[in-house]
Amino acid sequence: MKLSAHFALSEFTRSESAKREGLDNTPTAEHLENLKTLCEKVLEPIRLKYGSINISSGYRGKMLNHFIGGSVSSDHCVGRAADIDMDDSGTGVTNTEIFNYIKDNLDYDQLIWEFGTKEKPDWVHVGYRGKDNRKQTLRATKVNGKSHYSPY
């Protein structure tokens, strides 16, 4: 199933953890609509600028999200967020470029520089809620073994 011109649902629902644990990771009709909007408003513009992008984590049903230790309020669970990781993509595009492009050019709810260093995040989290977008830009770090989020 196509979510947009360049994105398939399978890119957002594939999960080795779900397969291994026998978890259903099928989005509801509402969550599908959220994924389509995320693709249209955020991911398609990135794809048009940079070509192929790697969605490392997309939709996560509540059971999968719980299993992997995700936040109980994660927008991944309702189809409003994706993680992008370009490190091994072979495209020459960096996570830093993706982060800065989103920050400087697109509307979003949350944009997170996920761990890594001051020069390069390990991956980029982006969420989109439409009219309720907060334009929140954060940096995730580990503090005493727990994820800590601070303004970017």
Characterise this structure.
- β5 (136-143) and β6 (146-151) form a beta hairpin.
- The N and C termini lie far apart (36 Å).
- A six-stranded mixed beta sheet has the order 1-2-4-3-5-6.
- Helix content is 34%, strand content 20%.
- With 152 residues, it is α+β, with helices and mostly antiparallel strands.
- The chain has five helices and six strands; from the N terminus they run αααβαβαββββ.
- The protein has one domain: Muramoyl-pentapeptide Carboxypeptidase, domain 2.
Short description:
This protein has 152 residues and is α+β, with helices and mostly antiparallel strands. 34% of the residues lie in helices and 20% in strands.
List keywords for this structure.
single chain, 152 residues, alpha+beta, Muramoyl-pentapeptide Carboxypeptidase, domain 2, six-stranded mixed beta sheet, 5 helices, 6 strands, globular
CATH fold category name: Muramoyl-pentapeptide Carboxypeptidase, domain 2
Q: Which residues sit in consecutive blocks of at least 5 with pLDDT less than 50?
A: none
Proportion of beta-strand residues: 15-25%
Measured as a percent range, the helix fraction is: 25-40%
Largest sheet: 6 strands, mixed
Structural class: alpha+beta
Lateral arrangement of strands in the main beta sheet: 1-2-4-3-5-6
* CATH architecture assignment name: 2-Layer Sandwich
Task: Supply the number of structural domains.
Answer: 1
Label the overall shape: globular
Radius of gyration: 15 Å
Q: What is the CATH C-level name?
A: Alpha Beta
Number of strands: 6
Mean pLDDT: 94
Order of helices and strands: HHHEHEHEEEE
Please tally the helical runs, counting DSSP H or I stretches of 4 or more residues. Answer: 5
| N-to-C CA distance | 36 Å
